[in-house]
Amino acid sequence: MRNFADELIEQCMKKNSVLVVGLDPDIKLFPDFLSKQIDSSLESISEVIYEFNKIVIDAVADHVVAVKPQLAYYEVYGSYGIKALEKTIEYARSKQLVIINDAKRGDIGSTSMAYAQAFLGEGIIAGDMVTVNPFLGSDGYMPFLEVADENNKGVFLLLKTSNPSSYEIQDLILENGEQLYFKMAEDINKLASATIGSNNYSYIGAVVGATYPEEAKKLRKMLPYSIFLVPGFGKQGGKAENLSVFFDAKGNGALISSSRGIIYSYMDGDNEWVKATKDEMFKRIQKSVLTANEQINSVRFNESGI
């Protein structure tokens, strides 16, 4: 039985990459050739965000498996931001990239169903996968799993996130002595183990931060059928040498995500980044992607971390 995890793994094998690039467009960090196109209108912001994303996508398309729009950067501009998101998704699809909407949605059942249809259905902002907050309980995330199954798409459930304060909630000790995120991992595994595809993985994945390799080592054993989406590599402090624990012995089972470290790589090394041309921006982003791939691939087949 095939599911979306099979398609994802096959794309990773084809490109020899497990890298995901986040599309987090912050107009304050755009070079002059882009920012000068912005006038007082939200429409101009929408157009420039799309142009920025196109440059990033063109630079990374041959070297990454997926792009991951962070929805907050689009929603802040209302319908104009969503228009930029729609066009970005369409363009990424034309480059045969997987789209992971980083939405972190989750609500009561009926609302979650509406969210699931929006992000995993046939709508104009629907992608191939979406991040979901499971801490409202099963009626908050089950609609996403149902819609993903119906449409051959995938879900990443937040589990052990990369932010420094994640321990405040996710590490809470339950009455039985278990940490909360361990209990969540057990619940995810019950669902994932019943939905395994031909490559031995489920379309039900988990978000596990690169900044927590020791926790990831335990979670990899607890969740043998779930692909991990691994944020926090690069600028947030996740180190390439610690990534082997996220993968299985075949080098599968994880997607490593980097956003700022790649899309704003033209800012590194000098204070003249505002003067960067389109060509310079493209070349620096492409170089940073190739470097990231090399770093990740050097450790992902290391069985000693499993």
Automatic annotation (TrEMBL):
SUPFAM superfamilies: Ribulose-phoshate binding barrel. It comes from the Bacteria. Residues 18-276 form the Orotidine 5'-phosphate decarboxylase domain. It is an enzyme of class 4 (lyase). It catalyses: orotidine 5'-phosphate + H(+) = UMP + CO2. Pathway: Pyrimidine metabolism; UMP biosynthesis via de novo pathway; UMP from orotate: step 2/2. The active site is at K104 (proton donor). GO terms for molecular function: orotidine-5'-phosphate decarboxylase activity. Its EC number is 4.1.1.23. One of its GO terms (biological process) is 'de novo' pyrimidine nucleobase biosynthetic process. The keyword Lyase applies. Keywords: Decarboxylase, Lyase, Pyrimidine biosynthesis. Gene3D superfamilies: Aldolase class I. The keyword Aminoacyl-tRNA synthetase does not apply. HAMAP family: OMPdecase_type2 (MF_01215). Belongs to the OMP decarboxylase family. Type 2 subfamily. This is Orotidine 5'-phosphate decarboxylase. It comes from Paenibacillus alvei TS-15. The gene is pyrF.
